Amino acid sequence: MMGQEMKHPCGDCIKIAGKHYCNMNCGPAVDPKTGAEIKFEVQAPMQLDLDPTAVGCAVFTEEISVAEAHRRFPTSAALDNAITSRDVIAIMNAMRFAYDAHQGQQDKGGDPYIWHPLRVGFSLLPDVDACILGILHDVCEDGHVTEGQLMLALGGNQDLGFALGTLTRGDEPYEQYIQACARTSLTARVKLADLRDNLNPLRLEKAGYRWGAEKMFALRNRYQAALAVLER
Fold first, then answer.
1. Which residue range(s) make up the domain with 161?
2. How many domains does the chain have?
3. Which residues, 6 or more positions from 104, have their beta carbon under 8 angstroms from its beta carbon?
4. pLDDT for 169-179, tens place per residue?
5. Is 77 exposed, middle or buried (0-12, 13-18, 19+ CB in 10 A)?
6. Is this structure's pTM higher than 0.90?
7. Residue 159 near residue 113, CB atoms below 8 Å
8. In Å, how far are 1, 31, 38 from 5, measured between CA atoms?
């Protein structure tokens, strides 16, 4: 309006279930698409060019070849050179285990849960250990697995087993859990990848329609606070 100073959006606005929210005192929340700054880059979920049915069958059979495994990874030439055949087999074993552990589960938006740990894991490549932890980071918390089964999925690597234990939240307060994840570079990077996928605006928007916009906005703020701790 003439004679009235216009306040610019801070870029911290987000839309969840059709409602606009903003944490900053810069005026009314606006549609992020019209904001002067957008903090989150909206990207379509990476589904590995597979459908959930395929995840449970041919992709996870013992007969799958290393060449086929390489073909399904979203890798560059440099990444292909950085990952050995043994690495690919270890990652595929983790994928198979995660699929079994999360079978029938859905994320808050109603999508097959398996896509979340796969996105988290693959975002951490070419660090193979981090990738495996990302793929398996929720199997103890959300799945029903034994310690013996888990160690098989980790190739008997006790260091990865310890790291996975750190990434699995128990009864401790959330802030204490995040502080524990922040103590090592490996667990911090995996937890950061997990939080960044959970903060994907498309996922928050979809979950808001099922769980309520206010609840998802509060969860988003909790994840943002955890990011600040892990990024120090």
1. 50-230
2. 1
3. none
4. 989 999 999 99
5. exposed
6. no
7. no
8. 8, 20, 22
